[in-house]
Design goal:
Radius of gyration: 21 Å
CATH architecture of the largest domain: 3-Layer(aba) Sandwich
Number of strands: 12
Strand content: 15-25%
Number of domains: 2
Number of helices: 12
Helix content: 25-40%
Length: 307
């Protein structure tokens, strides 16, 4: 099978070498499209490929239509909103992610952002400590559990809300379960978001939830910018001079927020959650192994689309 490694933002060299080794050892041909200039380059590259490995690259309906032999797309990472699932499902193309491979990197970043904001973005101003503070985790999956684990090591109290988990499962993850988002936001000095961008979650976090947070609270978003209602965020920050917001992807209104609220708001220059050499390698190798297994045995364990 012909496997395309399509990465506008390339994997680390060690990851590319490992991916190529895994695929070629299994008898597959590997072709690479790295640092391409435009979406049209990806469309042009997929005409004869059987599988694609991507990072943040966009597998649109146009890409899928241009790939008559395509059988599987693997997104090296947890999020998969950059793939047109409906178009893939219509063609019965399997779409997978690689859950858990970037989790530690994202969790470490979430804690780093909390400390960064607690210390007033490392300016000379007096900051605060995270020890003894209450951390709420919205979605207690791979990343959420690691955030909770690291927060407990820093002396934080951890509670979590996840409608897909039972109280027993959350307790087994050493967090206190809460039973509504309103309860979670009301109880959290720091609130770490780990939900995907879905029709049901886009702009789901806005004024009503944010304004319920305790005095001096900080909302931490290492998920997707789309889950935040930016107008509602601005309104809450405007009415509550004690609230803070930090993210690893800038909201669309970031410049305006930064100008109005100064050190109470911060966003990294680009999506940083998976930007470690370890996560880069882990996700890439996992994607290659999943493709090998799919063609060898039909394993679709990590499939995220349905038909």
């Amino acid at each position: 099978m012909k496997i395309l490694l399509a990465t506008q933002k390339p994997f680390a060299a060690a990851a590319v070498e490992g991916i190529s080794g895994i695929l070629t050892e299994a008898g597959h041909e590997v072709v690479k499209l790295e640092k391409y200039a435009a979406q049209e380059d990806l469309v042009a590259a997929v005409g004869d490929v059987d599988a694609i490995i991507i990072r943040s690259d966009k597998v649109t309906s146009e890409v899928i239509a241009a790939a008559p032999k395509l059988k599987i797309v693997v997104r090296a990472g947890a999020g998969f909103d950059n793939v047109d699932l409906a178009a893939a499902s219509e063609r019965r193309i399997v779409v997978m992610n690689t859950p858990g491979q970037n989790s530690n990197a994202v969790a470490e970043l979430a804690l780093a952002l909390m400390i960064f904001m607690a210390r007033t973005q490392f300016t000379p101003a007096t900051g605060s400590e995270v020890q003894g503070k209450r951390l709420g985790v919205q979605a207690y999956g791979n990343v959420g559990r690691l955030v909770g684990e690291k927060a407990r090591a820093l002396g934080m109290e951890v509670c979590a809300f996840d409608p897909f988990l039972s109280d027993e499962q959350i307790i087994a993850g050493k967090a206190t379960p809460v039973h509504s988002l309103e309860e979670l936001y009301s109880a959290s000095d720091y609130l770490s978001i780990h939900i995907p961008a879905l029709p049901s979650t886009i702009k789901s976090i806005g004024y009503d939830l944010i304004s319920k947070m305790p005095k001096g609270a900080c909302l931490v978003n290492t998920a997707r910018k789309e889950v935040i209602d930016e107008d509602g965020l601005a309104k809450a920050l405007r009415e509550r001079a004690d609230l803070k917001y930090v993210a690893d992807v800038a909201p669309d209104n970031y410049d305006a927020l930064r100008e109005e609220f100064g050190l109470r708001v911060f966003a990294t220059p680009k999506k940083m959650g998976a930007q470690t050499s370890e996560a880069n390698i882990n996700a890439g190798l996992a994607a290659a192994r999943q493709i090998v297994d799919f063609f060898a045995t039909g394993n679709t364990k990590f499939q995220v689309n349905k038909w």
